[in-house]
Specification:
Blueprint lengths: L6 H16 L14 E2 H10 L6 H10 L5 E3 L5 E4 L19 E7 L3 H7 L9 E3 L3 H9 L4 E7 H6 L4 E3 L5 E3 L7 E3 L6
Antiparallel strand pairs: 1-3, 2-3, 4-6, 5-8, 6-9, 7-8
Helix pairs in contact: 1-3
Length: 189
């Protein structure tokens, strides 16, 4: 995780992911309906909770995070997680037309259930999909022995699945039925 981040900032990135994606209440923070928070408030709430964050370190995490997990508002005053929320937020991103194929990386131990039940967001708000098998393989590797599924987006669209593209390029989708899935060819070496 965070291959581009200096080691001392990896913990900060994980902390920001926790409070901006899953548990803002951990530091008494409130996010707006679209997941945004004022940076000054974030820094003050973190400090009050015992986690002092230098603005320069925050800026480095935003700029250098390999997965571009965080979005900065146009005026530079607000921050949110780009995707991956387990709390209710409306990212206010429009539906998007996906490419013909998208990919989902998972652990081999989940394959049978997924092929029977389809892709579900689990504790997240959306299913996360990648535009390439290499990225999907890396995602799957985080959960165990990786396997990559190919998503036939035309079939998924016909089944009523909606697709979105997060600020960081990750494809988000409603649950994807099993008949839209197949094992993908492994990435080229």
């Amino acid at each position: 995780m965070n291959d581009q981040l200096p080691r001392h900032l990896v913990g900060l990135s994980k902390f920001l992911s926790l409070v901006l994606r899953h548990d803002p209440g951990a530091i008494g923070l409130e996010l707006d309906a679209n997941g945004w928070t004022d940076i000054a408030t974030l820094l003050a709430k973190a400090a009050a909770a015992g986690r002092t964050i230098e603005r320069a370190d925050l800026d480095s995490v935003i700029a250098l995070n390999d997965k571009r997990r965080f979005s900065l508002s146009d005026d530079g005053l607000r921050l949110r997680a780009a995707q991956g929320h387990s709390i209710a937020v409306d990212l206010a991103i429009a539906e998007a037309t996906p490419p013909a194929l998208l990919y989902h990386g998972t652990a081999r131990r989940f394959l049978d259930a997924i092929l029977q039940q389809g892709l579900r967001p689990q504790s997240r708000n959306h299913v996360h999909l990648s535009a390439d098998t290499t990225t999907a393989t890396e995602v799957g590797r985080r959960h165990g022995s990786p396997v990559v599924l190919r998503v036939d987006t035309a079939a998924a669209l016909a089944a009523g699945v909606r697709f979105y593209r997060a600020d960081n390029g990750v494809w988000l989708a409603d649950p994807v039925p099993a008949h839209c899935l197949a094992l993908a060819d492994p990435p080229a070496a």
